[in-house]
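Amino acid chain
________________
===
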Amino acid sequence: MSMRSLAGEFPLRPRKEIMEKMFSWVAIFAVSLMVATAGLGLWLGDLHGQTDPAILRWGTVHRLSGVLAALVVVLVNSMSVTYFIGTGRWCREVVETYGLSPTFITQSKQIKRRSFPFALFGMLSVVAIVALGGAADPAAGRQGSADWVTPHLVGGLGLAAVIAACFAAQRTRIHEQQQLIEAVMADVREVRSSRGLEVEPLAETPTVG
């Protein structure tokens, strides 16, 4: 942030409602896709030795839905990572521009560090699910694939629960970061008010962009 903001413009901040709600809804969508994919897999059962064309077509749907679910899971975790990188930089620039307490920057880094492991573990978990699915897929023509059916079932369900828990943990960290941003903005209001500059009304929440 430039000194221009200190002289005139009020610093804009991410809207609390937008990020928290967007992350929550996309995370719910990702979990729903995983549940639907798992349900389809349970309904299909072991495809080894299966010759019914209709069942085999549903097997293809199961594979594609699994790929889609994996992509959405990666997207959700990437949203979290991008959010913390962006708001961490915003916090540092505002603190430096207005001469606020450096503890804000420290707290922001701590929240980010507590969130990143969950994002990473969530992405690694979905990669593991896809790998187990590929190992158990008879269409791959791999010998011994039948031995991976049960590990894929157990691992897929267990790791899906882990991914959901990672989403919940990141949602909590996002809330903490938003509370920190509100605290930063409260100090910014005090600084600007003491210098006779424009102060954002508390009832308004500006958007970024």
